[in-house]
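#data-curation
PF: Archiving a pair of folding outputs for the training set. Convention for this channel: one message per protein, sequence first, structure tokens after, nothing in between. First:
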Amino acid sequence: MSSHSPIQACGKSVQGAGRKKNDDRFLIAPITEEYLLIAVSDGMGGHPDGDKAAEIIINRLQTLDIRQGSEDLLLHNALQMADGVISAEVAANPGSAGMGATATTALLDGNMVYWAHIGDSRMYLVRQGRLCQITRDHTFIQGQIDAGHISQQEAINHPFAHVLEQCIGCIDTGVDHGSFAASPGDSILVCSDGLFRNLAEDHLLGILDSGRPPAEQVERLLDFSEENAPIDDATVIVACI
């Protein structure tokens, strides 16, 4: 578990039952006195070196230099560069073909939230008792939902629910990125799919809007997730502004 102040943030990752290794990685790091960097990366399970791909992404983000450009473009460019590193790794080691990972990352300064994203990890905002999903899943199923072919409920247990259309290591249309103004009392959740696939949004909101410290929220989220379906690795970061 890791934490940061004055923005209160905590994160934790748990290995799924029966998994030989945890392919998830996360980061909570102050990069200046003003900015806190948070990130979750989920290595592609069942593919070679998924955990290594996640580590490449986290390591690249740790080198972020806020002086080199606008905040959301810095995150966007860092993920693009990580994609290049993974592609070069696969070219040099063909046995790693298929290697990749999701990435959802944000820079927080108390006034703004800058974010970048690819894959099916997620970022949520909790504000004034409402839960809003900020990122869009880059999955086959999300495309079917957007086209109106299936409902959100039908997607939950769909056999192709985990099929990614993009990841770091297989970028197609590019990295999503953006920003929004933060308000006092906001909570930010960044998590891998091992969490949100096991908890309904009303359960997420009930914990995130509870007023409990971030460390306690993280533990409760992971406890509920493990009770429901502890097969997949699950990683959570909660940041309270």
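PF: Second:
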Amino acid sequence: MNTPAAVSDSTPSSLADASRAPTPSMLDAMLDAPVDLPADVTAGLLSLYDDLAAEYGFPLTPSAAFEELGVSPARIAEARAAILELPTLVKPPRDRRPELAVQVIRYLKDHTGAAHVIPGVRSYYSKPYRRFLLELRERYSEIEHEEFARCVCVPPETLSRWVRKARRS
């Protein structure tokens, strides 16, 4: 998402489109929201909403609310920058599970015999493959243990045993 350096007093033509402008009742609803935020923080959030509205084609834009809030464009830009420094507020963390699964598939494709599984009987995993999975475990530590084990198709108990053994050595 591109972040403008500052919010100008003049509304860009794409935002001035009457079909996208908030109606007075919508503006009142935004300004009377039950959230108790300072006006400049609210304006910063609305500025971010502006970007999202343009990027995803939302039907309205809150640009007109800036003037109603009585916040200077410079202060809006400051609040916006502060909000953008909070990545989890602006966008959720990226789901890395598909990336993890692809790495495992590539490894198994390139290393025939790295894993041999006989469902319900016994499984064999080569030492290099176990080391590879332990390296991945460290790189993808944000993924819960059970979910990680599911993504790499190794029983969670087996993976736990490998992790414990690696910590001891």
